[in-house]
Design goal:
This protein is of the alpha+beta class and 210 residues long. The protein has eight helices and nine strands. Helix 4 crosses helix 6.
Length: 210
């Protein structure tokens, strides 16, 4: 594995049904500010709040604790001596169980935080090894624990802006450079045999065939 920074992050599929759209986008933002291999982050809450794009640090703190309660992250606190006394420095470790890969470039897309969060959640409900979600709209609402009207609104936005297409076979995320098609089981097996020579970039760029 190279020491280069990866252009994508692992997002656990288990966030689907547990987080709403804004929370899902914060989870993605935390992933972007985590080590690309260990998925550990030492980012300060103040800086994460700015990166996320709001001013309410208390809101971000509340969501981080929710992530911890849902076993989506672990938070380790280390007492640290600062200019104004002792404070807890937090390290966040993200759960990557049953993950999907999403490019860093989603962050820079000129769309709302809600739509970005929706696209992250939609990717989490795609069939393994595909960018296709087979759930009909009502089923997707149940799977994500989000109201049908919200699902309808963001499906339409995503389609109108060219992020998805819909047909009789399902809902398809169109940009496979942003929403990277992988098979986690295959990746684990191949890397077990070729761990010294095969990088995540090789798998992402399809130098192996599934």
């Amino acid at each position: 594995m190279t020491g280069a920074e990866l252009s994508y992050r692992k997002i656990t599929e288990t966030i689907a049904g547990k987080l709403d759209l804004l929370e899902a986008y914060l989870f993605y933002c935390l992933a972007l500010n985590s080590d690309c291999y260990t998925m550990e982050s030492n980012i300060k809450q103040e800086n994460l709040t700015k990166f996320y794009g709001i001013k309410k640090e208390d809101q971000v703190r509340e969501w981080l604790h929710k992530f911890e309660e849902l076993n989506l992250i672990t938070i380790d606190k280390t007492p640290t001596q600062g200019k104004y006394g002792t404070f807890d420095r937090c390290k966040y470790t993200l759960n990557t169980e049953h993950y999907v890969l999403i490019s860093n470039t989603l962050y820079d897309e000129p769309i709302s935080r809600q739509l970005k969060g929706f696209l992250v959640l939609l990717m989490c409900k795609c069939l393994n090894g595909t960018n296709t979600c087979k759930y009909i709209q009502a089923e997707l609402a149940q799977e994500l624990n989000i109201s049908p009207s919200t699902i309808s609104r963001y499906l339409k936005q995503a389609e109108d802006l060219g992020y998805i297409k819909r047909d009789e076979k399902g809902i398809h995320l169109k940009n496979d450079k942003m929403f990277i098609i992988t098979n986690e089981t295959t990746i684990a097996q191949v890397k077990n045999y070729y761990h010294n020579i095969l990088t995540d970039e090789d798998i992402r760029d399809r130098y192996i065939h599934r």
